[in-house]
Amino acid sequence: MERPKLTAIVTGAISLVLGILYLLGVQILDAREMVPAPIGLLFKLMTIGS
User: For 29-40, what is each residue's pLDDT tens digit?
Assistant: First the structure.
């Protein structure tokens, strides 16, 4: 097998693996339960800053 062809196959395989890992990561992050931000802490930070 010629070297350029082997390089193309290896980089293509790496690209596919990275793409699949990215999609899995997005699915995991998207499936988490949505927790609202603590509003009380926001008001405390706003009053300290002014």
Answer: 999 888 876 777
Continuous H helices in the chain = 3-31, 39-49
SS3 label, residue 11: helix
CA-angle at 28, arms to 19 and 12, nearest 5°: 10
Separation CA 19–CA 6 (nearest Å): 20
The domain in which residue 25 lies consists of 3-49
- The amino acid at residue 12 is G
Is the whole-model pTM more than 0.85?
no
